[in-house]
Amino acid sequence: MEEINFKSGFVTLIGRTNVGKSTLLNLLVGEKIAAIANKVQTTRTAMKGIVNRPNCQIVFIDTPGIHKPKTKLNETMVETSFSSILDADIVLFLIEATSTNIGKGDSIILEKLKEKKLKTILIINKIDLIKRENLLKLIDIYRKEYPFEAVIPISATNNKYKEVILNEIEKNLNFGPAYYDIEEYTDQTFRQLAQEMIREKALKLLQDEVPHGIYVEVEKMKQRKNKQGEPIYDIEATIYCLRESHKGIIIGKNGEMLKKIGKMARIDMENSFETKVNLKTWVKVNLDWQSKDKIVNQFKLK
Length: 302
Known about the structure:
Layout: E1 7-15, H1 21-29, E2 47-53, E3 56-62, H2 72-86, E4 90-96, H3 104-116, E5 120-125, H4 132-143, E6 150-153, H5 162-172, H6 190-205, E7 215-225, E8 231-241, H7 244-251, H8 256-273, E9 276-285, H9 293-296
């Protein structure tokens, strides 16, 4: 394909916490690359998802939700979100359909868009939760605030909106080369994907006060052949938490919770990596890790 007929570009997803950015990213890419849980601050770092179309390559960047930072980790997350929109060719600004006006977090995002005059598509998520007249009022409120290229109401869990969004993005991209190989769908390594999968299961299964005090580190990831000659990954990972009491909750009675987290993560890995996985997990306490530069720097925009 001649480059002159080929379009490409970077598209950043931005919005408040828990608005559905990671769910939408996974839908658009068609692969699971971002952790999804019904908890705030699920996404911690900017990760890329790549969509290859016949005449176009779209590189999506998922970002942490905009929230009021309380730790060094939170500050880094918000900084990452705003940094990632600066070089974007298009911004996908996600809001919730259940909003009745422009809240503080969304106002901050709008100000950033106005300041940089960024080409933006407004995505209104969770439309299944509201009446049509309320949706029309919300569209009118936002249309008066910013000249969006398009406004697309969706439910991020419904596949029928995928092509609508991708077609609108492609229409608004400039001509340019492919930045990644057409076989790739993310810039995340298998190790990073494994960490995300373990963390996602912990987010889904643990009590509210525990999940955001954890991070996961894969210490070993090695491929070998089993006795039947089939490829298998040996993966060893540690779940770090902030307190001894949290460690007990993560492990659970007779180790049941940790086994459940490990089993669910292993199934995800086997589906994603298309190979068998032997996963071992441990839990350790790392006091105040959210304020330690060595760890927090891992979440900065690369």
